[in-house]
Design brief:
alpha+beta; 3 domains; BirA Bifunctional Protein, domain 2; 14 helices; YbaK protein; 9-stranded mixed sheet; RNA-binding; 585 residues; Rossmann fold
Length: 585
RNA sequence: CGGGAUGUAGCGCAGUUUGGUAGCGCGCUUGGUUCGGGACCAAGAGGCCGCGGGUUCAAAGCCCGCCAUCCCGACCA
């Protein structure tokens, strides 16, 4: 491909709208252009990267036994009413009416459609398991789209759905996808971790997120270097390092703390450390109001509380409700005399003589003690993990990473098959609901995440496997006849070998070409100039290394091919290693 | 939806305080000279100053309303 004919508008400066690096570079490198908030055009260069990611996904999904389908983006409301999500899904679901005033929506995900597709068609246990996937745009009317392609409203996604006859089968499907995902991200040339995650509104008992490691990632991962346990911070379990306190219990004492609501204010006023104080937080849930207690220097993890009480819904109580439930104002809540169930973080249970709110304005209690002064409904791990914490499984200290969620695999169980009445006949001729799983990969986000992970001040550094082109052929002066001849011949030879070449035939000064080459980040740059021709050579330079190397013109094409194959082989071997590890888990 | 900010040429910005009919850099066009890290000279093209209304002899600027975009919080691939 000749660059002079290629639609690749690059920019020296990054548009003001772009804050994160992947967004800036994708705009500057002419990969995408914004059409509206969270909605992007893909230009030829960006599309090539996206298609490569999709193709890797396709190959690995097929390899794992899944079959590709293509489902409509516009979906009728009836299906969503059947699953109950017409009401349950919030405003992210873009609803509209057609000319017949028929209610429809743009698909933010396709569970309903896929269940409708298979029910009545898959009738026998003999046909199971089945795993169907598609690569399609989703639309979610996010309140606030941001970070460019990282969180758009319309975005590319691969979604897969498995149907199994029994639990062991469903487990096997899940493991199959875990392995496939590991291969996919390894083949994309990305550093990633699979971590345990909270399931969110899609439901199910547990799930794994696939995280591309990048300092700019929104999520924090706790990874145990010893036993391999890894989890999103939203989920990560912690082993308590603290020892039980053995001080004798002191007399409960009410102390005046005028206007001191926050942990900092109370501690400063009483000249005590936050670890001596225990916060009492009041929540509303579908299981009724509950209280949760964590040390003053800790943060409650609401996901853990929600899991503990098995609630579908959990939110902080309003100041009014706190007044009603505790008889005291916000900021002065405490366990003593409280009539709602109290859940205690395991660390709190180790404390003696701690400070709590008195459930009346401007008073706290000194020397509060569990059992003597109040009872706990349950004691559990309820707090957010912090640096220095230890793995709950093996006791090693956690490592922390920042990550970008690019994939998520869920066990759905009967969540959709049951309300939508999707059944098959088992070996006993008995009607059963499908046991489902669903498995997503953000394709457009994966491209952005790759850039977040692999860039330098000059621009993008593509992993070879998803690079839009493999070779950037750069003649210093394409108007020079001799240079031009060598360049054209080499380009033809490279393309004949099946390599993807972008030839910079523009009438630009060398500096511009170098800058653009670095910006768009094609892995191998081959330079043709007077100096190299004087030695019957061209210059090879890899985007991810500083080293430059002269290669004889006569051997250049084969050398390029070998170099590229070697790199792809390295990725492939790494993929196999990672897949082997994944299968052991 | 709450808080903050910004809309002026394709991109980055100045001009708004103190109203007088729009400017800089990059990019683009033409000609010439250059050619190993965003070259140089010369000549050009390009703007409902986000939209609507108001004030005024006169509005990019002042007033009112709206819209869009970006950033910070609740969602998620």
């Amino acid at each position: 491909m000749k660059l002079s004919r290629y639609y690749l508008p690059t920019y020296r400066e990054s548009p003001a709208e772009a804050e994160v690096i992947s967004h800036q570079l994708m705009l500057r490198a002419g990969m995408v252009k914004k059409l509206a908030a969270g909605i992007y055009n893909w230009l030829p260069f960006g599309l090539r990267a996206l298609r490569k990611v999709e193709e890797i996904i396709r190959e690995e999904m097929n390899r794992a036994g899944a079959q590709e389908v293509f489902l409509p983006m516009v979906q009728p409301s009836e299906l969503w009413k059947e699953s109950g999500r017409w009401e349950a899904y919030g405003k992210e679901l873009l609803r509209f009416q057609d000319r017949h005033e028929h209610e429809s929506c743009l698909g933010p995900t396709h569970e309903e459609v896929i269940v409708d597709l298979v029910r009545g068609q898959l009738r026998s246990w003999r046909q199971l398991p089945v795993n169907l996937y598609q690569i399609q745009d989703k639309f979610r009317d996010e309140i606030r789209p941001r970070f460019g392609l990282m969180r758009g409203r319309e975005f590319g996604m691969k979604d897969a759905y498995s149907f199994d006859a029994d639990e062991p089968g469903a487990e096997k499907s899940y493991q199959g996808m875990y392995a496939a995902y590991s291969r996919i991200f390894a083949r994309c040339g990305l550093e990633f971790r699979a971590v345990e995650a909270v399931t969110g509104p899609i439901g199910g008992k547990f799930s794994h997120e696939f995280m591309v490691l990048a300092d700019t990632g929104e999520d924090t991962l706790a990874v145990c270097p010893k036993c391999g346990y890894a989890a999103n911070l939203e989920k990560a379990e912690v082993k308590t390092a603290a020892k039980p306190e053995t001080d004798p219990e002191q007399v409960l004492e009410k102390v005046h703390t005028p206007g001191r609501r926050t942990v900092e204010e109370v501690c400063a006023f009483l000249k005590l450390a936050p670890a001596n104080l225990v916060k009492t937080l009041i929540f509303e849930s579908d299981k009724g109001p509950v209280a949760a207690m964590v040390r003053g220097d800790r943060e409650l993890n609401p996901n853990k509380l929600q899991g503990l009480i098995n609630a579908d819904r959990l939110e902080m109580a309003t100041p009014e409700r706190i007044q009603e439930l505790t008889k005291g104002p916000l900021g002065f809540s405490g366990p003593v005399g409280l009539k709602i169930p109290i859940y205690l973080d395991q660390e709190v249970a180790l404390l003696k003589n701690f400070i709590t709110g008195a459930n009346e304005p401007d008073y706290h209690l000194l020397n509060t003690n569990l059992t003597r002064d109040f009872q706990a409904a349950k004691i559990a791990d309820l707090r957010v993990v912090v640096p220095g914490d230890f793995c709950n499984r093996c006791g090693s200290e956690y490592h922390f990473h920042k990550g970008i969620e690019v994939g998520h695999i869920f066990k759905l169980g009967l969540k959709y098959s049951k309300p939508m009445n999707a059944t098959f006949l088992d070996q006993n001729g008995k009607e059963q609901f499908f046991i489902m799983g669903c498995y997503g990969i953000g394709t457009s986000r994966t491209v952005a995440a790759s850039i977040e992970q692999n860039h330098d001040p000059s621009g993008i550094i593509w992993p070879l496997s998803i690079a839009p082109f493999q070779i950037y052929l750069l003649p210093i002066n394409y108007k020079d006849e001799r240079l031009r001849k060598v360049t054209d011949d080499l380009a033809a030879e490279l393309e004949k070998l099946g390599l993807e070449v972008l030839l910079d035939d523009r009438e630009e000064s060398p500096g511009v070409k170098f800058k653009d080459a670095d910006l768009i980040g094609i892995p191998l740059r081959i330079l043709v100039g007077d100096k190299t021709l004087a030695k019957d050579s061209v210059e090879f330079k890899l985007r991810n290394q500083d080293k430059k190397e002269l290669v004889l013109i006569s051997k250049a094409a084969m050398a390029a091919k070998e170099l590229i194959l070697a790199q792809l082989e390295a990725i492939s071997q790494k993929t196999d290693r990672i897949a082997t590890q994944a299968s052991k888990l």
